[in-house]
Amino acid sequence: MSARCQLVLPCRDEAAALPSLLTSVPPDIEVIVVDNGSRDGTAGVAADLGATVVQERQPGYGAAVHAGVLVATAPLVAVMDGDGSMDPRDLTPLIELVESGQATMAVGRRRATDPRVLPWHARVGNRAVLSWLRHRTGLDVHDIAPMRVCGRQALLDLGVQDRRFGYPVELLVLAQQAGWVLVESDITYRPRAAGTKSKVSGSLSGTLRTARDFAKALP
After folding, report:
1. pLDDT at res. 117
2. Rg for the chain, CA atoms, rounded
3. Are 6 and 74 in contact, with CB atoms under 8 Å apart?
4. CATH number for the domain including 150?
5. Is the pLDDT of residue 126 over 80?
6. Which of 9, 34, 133, 136 has the fewest CB atoms lying closer than 10 Å?
7. Per-residue pLDDT, 203
8. Which of 49, 25, 17, 64 minimizes the C-alpha distance to 160?
């Protein structure tokens, strides 16, 4: 039986997070791990746990996501980080929102289990981007689509071009321009898995690089 949805996990050096993460994925969701230049055995761990593994040599979050979506065959695709900070069981209500027609894209809104999970510089950056989006586009969003579900072909037809960290911002802008119905749902946000390090919020420099990518994707 084909999966109702395939989950794309863009990964770079997330081997320590994958055992717990992949065993928590609901059984009706197939996993595609996109290895984006890992040096810690991420691809081997993912394959051993039953995931489809795709190698994407072009560095960048958007490049990894796009590679996974191209390989997917299910009518719906989901995307979330592979660092263990989000619970894949939260995907089920998002899938149901899209399947029922209530949303063109269902988006997770992170609710931190600990205020220290997201460093101050990452919180400030997110607020700035979201404020700009609401002001310039009227998008009523409260997070930058860290977990999301939508139709695979509809996503490809949208034509998101950013291949770095600006991908989710461009996605939100294009989705609104295309008349998509976006619905947010609360999701759990917890400390990332021990032994992994964030490429975005793990350092001030990482946050600044991401902010630069976000700015390029803003209208």
Report:
1. 77
2. 16
3. yes
4. 3.90.550.10
5. no
6. 136
7. 46
8. 64
